[in-house]
Model the fold of this input.
Amino acid sequence: MKIKPFTISENEKELVKSLLQKITETKRDRFSVVNLETIYGFLNKKEIAFLKKLLTLNPHEYGFKGEFFGIDDVPKDLVEIEGQKYEVDTEEGFAEIGVRYLPKKVYKAYTKMNDAMFNDIGKKLLIASGYRSSAYQLFLFVWYLNMYEFDIEQTVKRVAMPGYSEHCVSDNVAIDFITTNGIPNENDERRFEDTKEYEWLLKNADKFGFKESYPKDNEFGINYEPWHWKYGIMVKNL
Done:
């Protein structure tokens, strides 16, 4: 049976722009800990219908080979992380990361690993992104879809659909790291692979239960992301 291609009409493309504006005007970081119904509460019927249509998209038809984890409830033991700052070349000299979240056991493992890294090389890693609800993951997917001019194949390579993202798996959530001097950044994300922090992670992260999810030429059809590490592997030695 021939699969009917997923299409996005010109009217829906215009709808996306208004939808993104509405969500961006709110405290979108807080969407990391809400369900889809909360997101729908900010939108009109046409916008909701488009998002529900988007959730029917099968990323495996566009080259993604990752696992479907399902859409879980938001964990009740999330640790709220605030006040993270990294260096930038501005008058203030720093930028602050918004509120981020991790399940308690992942936060404890991250803290132990960060302390060990500091003891070894005098450096620490910040959390650029931790736990995300499926609602927030859907917002991200729409944001990148708009950025890539509605090229679904390119979008799927850059960000996972809700249900397929390691950031949404409460027991084995992934962390996107950023160094205290702001690497990776939008201008050159892959610079992270040249840092001492990344070198340390490659040698030691498995001792704390973390594994690099998307190395070069990975099997999942995802862009190389040296900063993206998933928690939940068997700890070798602590």
